[in-house]
Amino acid sequence: MSSFPEMRPEVVSNTLSREVKKGRIMIPIQGFYVIIPDEYVLRGFAPQSFYLDDMMTHMGRKYYVALMSAGSYYGASHQAPMTFSVMLEHPTIRDKKTNKYSTRFFYRTSIPMEFVERRQTRTGYINVSCPELTAIDLVTYQARSGSVTRAATVLAELVEKTDFRKYGTTFLKVAPTACFQRLGYILDVILEDSEAADAVYGLLKEASVRLQPAALKPGKATDGCELDPRWKIFVNESIEIDEL
C-alpha cells in the first residue's frame, strides 16, 4: 500500500490474488506475501530460507531453523529433509503443507538465542540452531521428527561439528536431563564417539546432576530392558544407523 498509494486497497488485493494464481506470488501465512524468484516460478514456491526471517519479523516471533533442517546447514542432513522445521515459542502456528512444500513448527517454552547462529542466505539472514542445540533437539523431539534411529543417523554426521564444552553448564537448561542422558548414550554406545560423550557427561557431572533411570524411547515399556550403567538409560529401542 505504501509503494502504490494511488491504488485503492481492493485493487491491490485483487492484483495480488491474480499474481498468486499465476504462481508469481505465494502466501505462506495470511497477510504475508512473497515474490517468487523467476528460477522458482515453475516450482510454484520460493525456498523457506528466502523469506522465513522476514516472516518472523513481520509476526514479531523469535525462532530458529531446527532439527533435520538445521542439520543440513552443517552438512548433516544425510538425505534432504522433505519438511522445513522451525522452532518457536507459543502461541502455536498451524503447520503449512501444500503439494509443493511443507513447513512444520515445533515449540519450546523459550528460545535460547545464545545458542542460535545467524547464517547468511541468498536473500539475507536466517536463525539456525548451533550444532550442539541441533543435536539435543534431535533427541528431545525424536517422536515428532521421525525416530531415535533417524536422529542418531543425523547425529553421526553432525557430531564432528559439536563441542559440548563450549557453553558450559548453562547449556543444560535447553532440555530435560533425561534428554542429555539419551544423547550421551547415543554418542557413547551407538556412535562410539567417546570424546563427545565424555563432554556431555562432564557437563552433567560439573552441574552435580544426579542421573535417574530414563527410557531411550519415551512412552515405550522398559520391562526387562537392559539399563546402561553410565547413562542410566533403559535400552527399550533398537538403533540401527542408516548407511551414510
Salient structural properties:
alpha/beta; single chain; 244 residues; four-stranded mixed β-sheet
Question: What can you tell me about this protein's structure?
Answer:
The structure is a single chain. The chain has a four-stranded mixed beta sheet with strand order 3-4-6-5. Strands 1-2 form a two-stranded antiparallel ribbon. The protein is 34% helix and 17% strand. The protein has 244 residues and is α/β, with parallel strands linked by helices. It is elongated, with a radius of gyration of 21 Å. The protein folds into two domains: 1-45, no CATH class; 47-234, Beta Polymerase, domain 2 (2-Layer Sandwich), CATH 3.30.460. Helix 3 runs antiparallel to helix 4. The model has no long low-confidence stretch (mean pLDDT 93). It contains eight helices and ten strands.
**What is the number of strand segments?**
10
Shape: elongated
The radius of gyration over CA amounts to 21 Å
> Runs with pLDDT <50, length 5+?
none
Class by SSE composition: alpha/beta
Assigned CATH class of the largest domain: Alpha Beta
Largest sheet: 4 strands, mixed
CATH topology (fold) name of the largest domain = Beta Polymerase, domain 2
Beta-strand percentage? 15-25%
**Order of helical and strand elements:** HEEHEHEEEEEHHHHHEE
Number of helices: 8
What value does the average pLDDT take? 93
How many domains, in number, for the residues?
A: 2
List the strand order in the largest sheet. Answer: 3-4-6-5
Distance between the termini: 50 Å
CATH architecture classification of the largest domain = 2-Layer Sandwich
